[in-house]
Amino acid sequence: MNLKMRILVICFVGILFSTLSIHGQNDSNPARASAHSLVYVTNTGSFGDGNTVSVIDTATNTVVHTVSVGQGAGGVAITLDGAFAYVVSGSSTVSVIDTATNTVVDTIVVGSNPGDVAMTPDGNFAYVTDGNSNSVVVIDIATNAVVTTIGSVPTPAGIAITPNGESAYVTNLFSNGNPINGNAGSVSVIDIDTNQVVSTIITVPQDNPFGLAIGKYGRFAYVTNLSSNLVSVISTKSNTVVANVAVGSRPVGVAVTPNGAFAYVSDSALFGGLSGISVINTRTNTVVATVPVGLDPQGLAFVPGGAFAYVANQLSNTVSVIKTATNTVVATVPVGIGPVGVAITPRVRR
């Protein structure tokens, strides 16, 4: 999540941004459980001036590469085959990293304040939120060309696409696109076939929805609400909020385990409270565990199979590695300044 969006939030609302049955696994070796995946962590810097991506090898839990990208590195996503990482930057670009060489092989100009990125399940397109232009930009992965810009998406922040590839869900930090005139947020639903907004959902009135993730079967979307300390659960069938789950202070990031059983929520707690990870049982929509991590946790992602979660701690300049079977931190990895985004390859290309 890029820092320009986070600075916008500071100015107007006084808050700062960015499975297998995993609890039955006993494997404490991240290397074996993740099949030597690579973890891509964006470093947004102290004041949005960060321009690097730290690459962690899960076999050793050490940084093996540092890649220079655009200024204000934020959201990151991996292509379906694991061959490329797409990194959005506040410098109005998307950097394309070849995961075999960990070099930038293309730079795509998009909008004026890109924040997050998600891949379609078929691997053909990347959808990028652009907060300043109130739009979502669509990139053709085959050509790295912008093919569509979807308007009327007010102050978009987080984005996720349903597993069937039919819909994209986008959090709107301010539903009217203007934080001065009110700060009620919403969620826009985009039809992937037509690239049109087909529904708008209010999560919590007068709140600021930010992070978003969709479960394994695509039945529910999970939305973090920055100001209310709630996670809204949206039924994708009816596009209505069916539950609001109380979590920790200032929830930002959210990710659902590969088996769909749990949603992990990063509670940034920047202005008080305990930072950590709230673990939600998606069957009961209750918090079943809280995991202490570093300061100001932001983005998070699971290794293939879900045995471990990697969490970016923005103010600690570290990544916490959580063993999901026990919900304990088993490693802490130093990275660059201000880590916010996390994405993990399905495998290492050799």
Describe this structure in words.
By secondary structure, this protein is mainly beta. It has a single domain (3-344), classed as YVTN repeat-like/Quinoprotein amine dehydrogenase (Methylamine Dehydrogenase, Chain H, 7 Propeller), CATH 2.130.10. It has two helices and 28 strands. The strands form seven sheets. The chain has a four-stranded antiparallel sheet, with no helix packed on it. The longest helix has 11 residues, at 3-13. It starts with a helix and ends in a 6-residue tail after the last strand.
Explain briefly what this protein structure is.
With 350 residues, this protein is mainly β.
Secondary structure elements and pairings:
Elements: H1 3-13, H2 30-34, E1 38-43, E2 52-57, E3 62-68, E4 73-78, E5 84-89, E6 93-98, E7 103-109, E8 114-119, E9 125-130, E10 135-140, E11 145-150, E12 156-161, E13 167-172, E14 186-191, E15 196-201, E16 209-214, E17 220-225, E18 230-235, E19 240-246, E20 251-256, E21 262-267, E22 276-281, E23 286-291, E24 297-302, E25 308-313, E26 318-323, E27 328-334, E28 339-344
Antiparallel strand pairs: 1-2, 1-28, 2-3, 4-5, 5-6, 6-7, 8-9, 9-10, 10-11, 12-13, 13-14, 14-15, 16-17, 17-18, 18-19, 20-21, 21-22, 22-23, 24-25, 25-26, 26-27
Largest sheet, described in full? 4 strands, antiparallel
The CATH topology assignment is: Methylamine Dehydrogenase, Chain H
Average pLDDT score: 88
Query: Approximately how much beta-strand content do the residues carry?
Result: over 45%
Taken together, the total number of domains comes to 1
